Amino acid sequence: MQVFSPRAQVAAALVFGCVASANPLIAQDWSLPSTFGEISITGGFQPDPNWIHVLAGGEIRREFPDAVTGNRCTGHFADAPDFRLFYDPSEGEPLSIYVESRDDTVLLVNTPDAQWHCNDDSSGLNPGLSFEEPLAGQYDIWVGTYQPSNGDYPSAILSMSGEAPFAATFARAFFGEDDRIVVDPSQAPWNMIGFVDLSSASCTGVLIGPATVLTAGHCLADEGQITTLPVEFIAGFDRGDFVARSPISGYHVPANWMAGEQEGYDFAFLYLTNPIGDQVGWMDVTVMSDAEIAAARTGDGPDIMQAGYSYDQQGLMTGNLDCPFVEIGSQNRLIHQCDTLQGDSGSPLFIETDGRYRIIGIESHTNAMPREEFDQNVAMYSEYIVNEMWAMAGQGGSTGTVGSGAMVPATK
Fold first, then answer.
1. Cis ω on the peptide bond leading into residue 254 (within 30° of 0)?
2. C-alpha neighbours within 13 Å on the C-beta side of residue 248
3. 65: cis peptide before it, omega within 30°?
4. Residue 38 pLDDT > 70
5. Can you tell me the distance from the alpha carbon of 152 to that of 67, in angstroms, rounded to the nearest whole number?
6. How far is it, in rounded angstroms, from Cα 259 to Cα 231?
7. pLDDT for the residue 399
8. Which one of 39, 87, 89, 343 has the minimum C-beta count within 10 Å?
C-alpha cells in the first residue's frame, strides 16, 4: 500500500476533484518549479541569515487565512513559488522566513504539512513568519505585493534564519540593545506628545502651542504633493484612551520640502480645531547654545529624551530617557542614537531646562550604513524649524485646509 504525505494527499485530491470546501482550489501551485531557485539546509544556517534577491508580486490576487493565527492577508502573487526551501532542522531550532523591501510586500508559505501561512506588515511594511517547531521537508515561498504589480515587480530580499525575524535589522536599529521603555502618556511631558491620525497612515506629533502640532513633513507630502491629509491629533494616546484630542483643520509644509525634499526641512505644522494645548501644555522649540552642544558631545549635557508610537508597540507610547548625542551635522541634521522605528516619525527629541521642555529636533529618517556597525538615525535640528516659524507669515510652503486644499493663512 502506498503512503501519501499530506502534500501528496492534497495533490491527489486536486486531481480527482475532491478537495473539501474548507480548502478551496487555489492558483498558487507548489508543484511548479520555483522561479528564483531552491536551497537545502540541514542542521543550522551558515550563514545566518541565508538570503536571496527576488522580484515580488504577480498577477493573481488572493486572500489567505494563516493556518495558526487565522489572520487573513491579501496580496498579488505569482502562480509558481518564488523560492523553495528543503529544511531538516536541528532539535529545538526555530525557523524564520521574512522579507525586506521598499514596497509593501506580503509573505505566503506552504509548509511540509500542506498548510498555508501568511503575513503582512510584521516589521513596518515588511512581512515575516516564525515556526518555533518547524517540520522537516519542503517549504514553498511566495513573495507577493499588497498593491497590484501591473507588470512592475519590485525588488525584495527574502531571508531564512534560525533567529527571530529581522533580528539583525533590530540590532542595527537599536544600536545593539533596545533601551526604549513604555511611558505614561497621561503625565507630563509625555501628554504633550500624541498620535497623528492621517487619512491613510499615522505618525507622531508634539504640541508646540495651544492649537499647533509639530510633526514630520514626509508624513503629509511626497515628491512635492500633499499625499496624506491629516485628520486628528490625539494627545497622550494609550490603546484607545487619551488625554485630549482635536480634529486637524489645516497644515503647513515648508516650501523647501515641497520642492525636492531638501535635507533639513522634513517637518510640518498641523493646526488644530480645538486649543487642547491649553489643557495639557506644550513644548518650546529652541536651538541649542554652543555651550549645550559642547556639553552634549562629551556626554555632560542635559538628558536628551524622545517618545513616539513605534510600529512594534501598537497603541503604546515608548520613550528614550537619555539618547546618545552624536553631532549636529550639515543641512540641519541632528544625528543621534535614540532607539526609534517606523511610526516614530515626527516625534520630538527634547531636553528639560529651567522647568521647560525644549524641542531640539524632530525625528525624520534612518540612513542605512551597511559598512558600519549601526545605521544612522537622523532628526531635523530645530534651527530650520525656528526659522520657518519666523518666516511663515510670508506664505512659503504648502499651507491648506484639510478637505479643501484651499490656501489659508500660515499662522492661526
1. no
2. 32
3. no
4. yes
5. 30
6. 24
7. 56
8. 39
Q: What is the mean pLDDT of residues 358-370?
A: 91
SS3 assignment, position 185: coil
How is residue 217 written as a grid cell? 513633513
Question: What pTM does this model have?
Answer: 0.68
Based on the number of CB atoms within 10 Å of its own CB, is 58 exposed (0-12), middle (13-18) or buried (19 or more)?
buried
Query: Helix or strand or coil: residue 116?
Result: strand
For residue 356, the surrounding DSSP H or E stretch is: strand 356-367
Cβ-based neighbour number of residue 287 at 10 Å: 17
- Residue 330's pLDDT band, with cuts at 50, 70 and 90, is very high
CA distance linking residue 340 with residue 146, whole number of Å: 25
Identify the helix (H) or strand (E) that includes residue 322: none
pLDDT class for 395, splitting at 50, 70, 90? low
* Alpha carbons 362 and 151: distance in angstroms, whole number: 38
**Cell 508610537, residue located:** 309
Using DSSP, state whether 82 is helix, strand or coil: coil
